[in-house]
Design brief:
heterodimer, A: about 550 residues, alpha+beta, seven-stranded antiparallel β-sheet, five-stranded mixed β-sheet, 14 strands, B: about 600 residues, globular
Chain lengths: ~550, ~600
Amino acid sequence: MEFAELIKTPRVDGVVLRRPFLPTVEGTLCLTGHHLILSSRQDNTEELWLLHANIDAIEKRFVGSLGTIIVKCKDLRVIQLDIPGMEECLNIASSIEVLSTLDSVSLMYPLFYRPMFQVIEDGWKSFLPEDAFKDLESMTEEWRLSDVNKDYSVCSSYPPLVAVPKDVDDDTLRKAAAFRHGGRFPVLSYYHKKNGMVMMRSGQPLTGTNGRRCKEDEKLINATLRAGKRGYIIDTRTVSVAQQAKARGGGFESEANYPQWRRIHKAIERSSILQESLIKLVEACNDQSHSMDRWLSKLEASNWQTHVKEILTSACLAAQCIDREGASVLVHGTEGTDSTLQVTSLAQIILDPACRTIQGFQALVEREWLQAGHPFQQRCSQSAYSNSKPRCEAPVFLLFLDCVWQILRQFPCSFQFSQHFLVLLFEHTYASQFGTFMGNSASERSKLNLSQKTVSLWSWVNRPQEVERLSNPLYEANCLVIWPSVAPQSLLLWEGVFLRWKRSSRCLDEAYDEMVHIIQYNKELQNKVNNLRRQLAQLETEEPLLQTP
Amino acid sequence: MEHILTPKVEEVKLLDRYTAKKPAIGTLYLTATHLIFVETSCNTRKETWMLHHLIATVEKLPLTAMGCPLHISCKNFHVAHFVISSERDCQNVHQSLVRLSQPGKVEELYAFLYNPKQDEDERRNGWGFIDSAMDFKRMGLPNEFWEMTDLNKNYELCSTYHSELGIPKTASKGTVFGSAKFRSRGRIPTLSYYHKESNAAICRCSQPLSGLSARCVEDEEMLQAISRANPKSTFMYVVDTRPKLNAMANRAAGKGYENEDNYSNICFQFVGIENIHVMRNSLQKLLEVCAMKSPTMSDYLTGLENSGWLRHIKAVMDAGVFLAKAVAEDKASVLVHCSDGWDRTAQVCSLASILLDPFYRTIKGLMVLIEKEWISMGHKFTQRCGHVDGDPKEVSPVFTQFIECLWNLMEQYPCGFEYNEKYLLEIHNHVYSCQFGNFIGNCQREREEMRLYERTFSVWPFLWENRHQYRNPLHKCSLGREVLRPSTLPLNFKFWCGMYNHFDKGMQPKQSILEHLLTITQKKAEGEKKMTDLQIQLAVMDGVLADQGSPTGTPPEQTSLAPVSVSHTAENAKPLMNGAAVEEAEIELVPTAGSEKMEPVAIEN
């Protein structure tokens, strides 16, 4: 299929672009296979380049022969295009509708994108499981890297290499996999250097209604416990949801079969509920009415902040078990690809200072989300505005980012990156020129051969100028565990994403620039003082005769 | 001291309000002015001080297995839950605190005891530090339209106003006195803020005694005079800050609001801010939300909504924005009133002034504004803050709301204010603590009668001395005379955790950007001084200054190095500077004597 067939009117002149808090631009609208472009063809005004993939929904309106298309984007921005001529407007609208909902993976933009920047370090090779394991090996000998899943036959959503206890052989892993949802047998998620405790994650055990058990599964997780020690199983579902899962073949670890483990249930919602929550939240943020009661009640009814609080609380619990209780932890929900990953990755942010660096955070996303098989493509194919019925869409990763932002806000000096990095990741999970978030698992990405055919987001991010842009000027390495407050008063609505297009960013940008400037100036000043000191010392040694008292 | 039955209680537990953490154990002391809890269970000596006059409520709960609980909540939202093992001790402490926290008369307030070791001259100068009359001069008064009058010098015109008032030049004495008879408590229309750029003015007063049909020629003339003082505008706004229903109810009592038919060219408007009783109840509900033990997000948000607090904050802000817009954009004068014109009117006029005039966004400017709109125009601090035992129905968080609106503005304009959140909290604290005399008494006449200026100290010089703490490192003067146009969409108003949960440190961010930047700005001054010193030393060693014969110490007069060193020393002498100074300093950094020498060193790194 040629894109040209889908584009009935590739170009319209005299189109007016209206965006809140920005000057209107009049210019030529062009449609290409992947972009909607509006250019005024004047040097000093910016051009709008919008990926079709970023368009969540459109609305058309007509007044006489003037058509208006309202474009609602997955990054929550809403723009308006006034298009002269009814036919042109209809053509443009229908083309956008088709181009923004193409299902075929082979037509996705990352496969067409050629980088305009020099790739210094190929992001596809930056965070290989082998390399991560080398770090682990330097700390402990109790773990090994198994290639039991090398052809993705044991678990389709796992990567080819996973870390498992050294004493457990591949055969045991295969049997344990058969007992876990989606073949997701317990694997290592995090090793806490301070006390040697670990966090593992998996899918739910397939106990079913008649209480099936699996010796190999028990052996596998018990192998992670020190003699005489108990571990914690954090089930991200409530007891009743976990109970109900039994009827569908799932379930949870019973005390009888896992006597060395204490099970704690949390209440992180399933993905369909999270998607609904996002839609309601965005709707609340777009409400232009001036009623405070209405805003607060809509915010409350969206339940978004409730989810943030619940996820953070669960992550704190996991971190607490490891760091304070000195116990190992297994985390799972149902599939082990959503709430499980929210908890394991946030717990690492809390516990491990390395995850709070720019590189370390990428490694965390790579390890705990991409390699761990979070189905990005399914979860992020629609955002808050889409009119089509949601299938598997859910803001699971966005909620994770929101929680990271909450911790960042409470510890503004402990992260090497600023919230710009989190916003950037949010944008790229929903629409991107990079192949990083394509596909639903390592196996899918490998089948598509993305590492050859597309550019990695990390290749872009790790260039010095981008690192500079994403850096947090306040950062001072903090090697401590950071415990966020989860009191409702301490958790704010993430303005950087949800209110981003709702108000002028001028004053906030200005403040940020000023802060950077102050810190930068101070650094330069300190450098200059140090240089002067050095010169002085040099002179003093060179010319001892001239030395002043 | 006669009220203190038990000055010291040992083995007292201080509970953590929110978590199940182990309570702190320590000794409770009652002094003449403070309740002090000294923790003995931890290695570092930790003290909690509570000023008696800040205590809003003391509650003794029924005896439990742990002991007898004593709940104390303060006007600055500090809450402490103690458990005292002996019920009798608890009873005694409770009884003492009830008495001590509610002084029977003003003279018992802390300000009359507080002695910062200043002599009489210092005290007098301190009281003269902020002069609201000076602010009218700053606005350009007197000018061809407005003048300052002393018609109220004996407080005969209006007992609750300042002795000096700004009125339109064309208003005769007869008009002024006539109008006073037609306004509740004689609070005539008087100048609050004069906007030089547009000639428009904000004036304030109390409600007219219009009843169902009464009118007053002098009052109509007074409004005419105000309107004429802004010759470019064909009309003026009259803003009644009350909800229309409340204002109408007042008509039956012989009060009310202006009839548009009787006053020429006025545009009348209600803005619907609720009265002091609604606000008091709303705060009560808000504090209940703050005190909830491990609430769910839903409990919290629903509680926040049901308290109505943010709705009221938004209403005050909306009114302030309306006034500022009228003056800056419509270039029309505005007359504002509520019932007595000392609560909502004070809130709205001071907010509008801040929006219009960057002076009030400076540390000193805010002092002037509070002095002018709140202290000298007769806000009833004694009753509203409940300084002394009195009618609990007169207590209302009117000033707190003003401060909160200001905080919301600062959140929207992080570079727009010279001061930071700590300054607001400190002022708020002093309004309630009565450590200084400023916020005692309801009007100038009362303060003179109480001889406050001789018996107490002013808070302003004290705050000014500590101004480095209150500085906003991000402040940019370059915003110039910009009128602030904040968005008042509901989503722009946040719950002020820093105020209402200020003492619950666990809820605050664990690292403070403000503190971080304040430290840096402090270092900056030191660094600049250090650099200057080093440059001079280097120059001396290089021989540049050798022939001047002053190799060390502070350089007296240097021609070669003058641009760098002199200006830096001057900057250092002044309070820490903001962005403008940074840029200035940076330019100067380049062409210094050491610059050629510096480069090779820099490359080596």
